[in-house]
Amino acid sequence: MKITFRYIFTVIVLGMLLASCGSKKRVVTRKPTKPVATTTAPSKNETPTSEEKDDDKVTTTIKPRSGDKVQNYIDDFKEVAMEEMKLYKIPASITLAQGILESGSGSGRLAVEANNHFGIKCHKGWTGGRIYHDDDEDQECFRTYNDASYSYRDHSLFLKDRKRYAGLFQLDIDDYKGWARGLRKAGYATDRRYPQKLISLIERYELYRYDNIALGKDVDEKPRVIEEVKETQNSGFVKQHVVVKGDSLYRLSIKYNTTVEQLKKLNNLKSNDLSIGQVLIVK
Fold this sequence. Notes:
Layout: H1 5-20, H2 69-88, H3 92-103, H4 109-114, E1 130-133, E2 140-143, H5 148-160, H6 176-185, H7 194-204, H8 208-215, E3 231-233, E4 239-242, H9 249-255, H10 260-266, E5 279-281
């Protein structure tokens, strides 16, 4: 059969018509893409679940502050006071009690504005910061510090480097009563009740416990009290003391609020040597 041009054209047209009558859906092949992770920031009121919490996050518990500002002060500075005791042999109990008393438990003007917790005045040779404050006289010069811990260190050096306080370091390191009296006698404060105020603070807040910790002793061990040494009282106004181990004229002068010279005069002593069992007139 002879194939004509008209036959070929007819076949092509029929093929196009059949293709147009088929499914119009097309299969499209695309390159897969990685899913995009989306996060929604939690609202301020939402609490994250345990799965949402960061395992590396460190949480700390803040101890609530006491209503007693003295106790708060002790909590803030007890570690500093114990460190100073280890380095300079000054009872932590005395340092803390002085800090409480001199700074108003950290609320006094010198403590707040100058970080001066011990009322240390400028004195000759001081080249650091200064603040002027009414004390025994109007507008006296007091030292300033960048941090309260520097005030504690300067307090240690102030006592250690001055000859008038040298006798304090002959006392037992945990003899807080002897230290309290010795500070007043050496001229640290003019208040006649200064020793009693320090002792009252130490005993009320058991500050001697920090002496024990610094010395590596049982924290609840009671300190040896100088007043427990044997003493007798004669009739009238003469008071005697029986010398025991550890006594010295300087220690007795602090205990009985007198002077070494007066004790030597009362007892006709030509030296500072004492013998155990020796009876001394102290008042």
